[in-house]
Amino acid sequence: QVQLVESGGGLVQPGGSLRLSCAASGSRFSIYTMAWYRQAPGKQRELVASITSDGSTNYADSVKGRFTISRDNAKNTVYLQMNSLKPEDTAVYYCNRYYRPSDWGQGTQVTVSS
Questions:
Q1: What DSSP assignment string belongs to 51-94?
Q2: Does 6 have pLDDT greater than 90?
């Protein structure tokens, strides 16, 4: 139903930061609970963070205190600010609706390595 375009990934050193963006199409973006997911090689996709229409957030234990999810409804965009990055954060990061996921986008690669 919605198109999703992730961007902002790249190669960073441990301890570094990145901000990911997810641009979504559609006129009902503001009512959706949105989420960021990631998938590392050989592992299943896992939920990283979610944010409701009223701004309530949840985080996986592995990223709590380091990552911050936010949204700008006027721009149909969800963000993931990632600080204090660790090598185990290396993965392809995707965004999607939480309750009724649409087709998955291309994702954006995050590589944390020294």
A1: E-TT--EEE-TTTTTTEEEEEEGGGTEEEEEE-S--GGG-EEEE
A2: yes
